[in-house]
Design brief:
- The two termini are 18 Å apart.
- 39% of the residues lie in helices and 20% in strands.
- The protein is built from 7 helices and 4 strands.
- The chain has one domain (2-136): Nucleoside diphosphate kinase-like domain (Alpha-Beta Plaits, 2-Layer Sandwich), CATH 3.30.70.
- The longest helix has 11 residues, at 122-132.
- It is globular and about 40 Å long.
- By secondary structure, it is an alpha+beta fold.
- It has a 4-stranded antiparallel sheet.
Length: 137
Amino acid sequence: MSQRTLVLLKPDAVRRGLAGEIISRIERKAGWQLTAVELRTFDRETLEHHYAEHVGRPFYEPLLEFMTSGPSIAMIVEGEEVVKGIRMLAGATNPLEAGSGTIRGDYATITRENLIHASDSPESAEREIKIFFPAHA
């Protein structure tokens, strides 16, 4: 079943020059395609909406500061089982627990700056796409 998902390449991915490598990994998956791609520095309001479920947690403010610290790349990726597939390609949130061959396992070093966000369900993907790409909702 074809799906859509939101992928964010976080400021550390852009700053470290890893965006091309990460996008290449996504593009090499048969049947997946990028249908929207945009480089931008996110404003706090957008991120507050996106991370609303984390309000009050100790990592919330540092996460917002990190995510507004520089340009990111927002993408919509479409394809068969893409939500689960991108999550597997990204690896565990904590890079120390992410397997070799995953984006986080190969390139990330700390949990907050872990290079990539990927929607965790088809429902989250649609909600998140509306936040970052309202014209594609």
